[in-house]
Design a protein that fits this description.
The structure is a single chain. By secondary structure, the chain is mostly beta strands. It is 13% helix and 45% strand. The chain is built from 2 helices and 8 strands, in the order H-E-E-H-E-E-E-E-E-E. The longest helix is centred in the N-terminal third of the chain and has 13 residues. It starts with a helix and ends with a strand.
Length: 157
């Protein structure tokens, strides 16, 4: 029954609104944001149709510290989800495209966000404050125009 629910969720996600965010280096006015090599453990890694996707999940506290920024008091998201894409054969970074991620919480609540291009990776902030198992589903269309997907479980302890 759980498999059926996951399959339905993935199918719904696959048929959801088209990807809308183009990967671009996002500016923050005069603020210099260092999104380079930041922390976070690799939560999932897989090769999909010649593209290696590496997902990292890190606490917002860790993410903000890596960017040398203060944690905003009004911040309701608890974690930053980042994904890097590389050509599986050459290792070349693939930084142009569109990425959408859906996170299903342990309470079956859902968050869907477009990930922004951020200096070599795509990322967005999510609320993973509750302990438990989260389903993470990603759809991405890179410069070659091919739509790919990846999914994994992430456990917040």
């Amino acid at each position: 029954m759980k498999k059926l629910a996951v399959i339905i969720a993935v199918a719904t996600f696959a048929l959801s609104a088209p990807l809308t965010v183009l990967a671009a280096d996002h500016g923050h006015g005069s603020m210099k944001m260092d999104h380079g090599k930041h922390g976070g453990d690799v939560a999932h890694e897989e090769v999909v149709d010649g593209v290696k996707a590496t997902f990292k999940v890190m606490s917002m506290k860790e993410h903000m510290k890596a960017m040398k920024m203060e944690m905003p008091k009004e911040m309701k998201e608890s974690h930053h989800v980042a994904v890097e894409f590389n050509d599986a054969k050459s290792g070349k970074a693939l930084t142009e495209g569109e990425v959408k991620v859906k996170v299903q919480g342990p309470d079956k609540s859902e968050q869907v966000k477009d990930l922004m291009g951020m200096q070599g990776h795509f990322g967005a902030d999510f609320d993973l404050a509750k302990k438990g198992k989260y389903g993470v589903m990603a759809k991405f269309k890179l410069a070659d125009g091919k739509v790919r997907s990846a999914k994994f479980w992430y456990v917040v302890k």
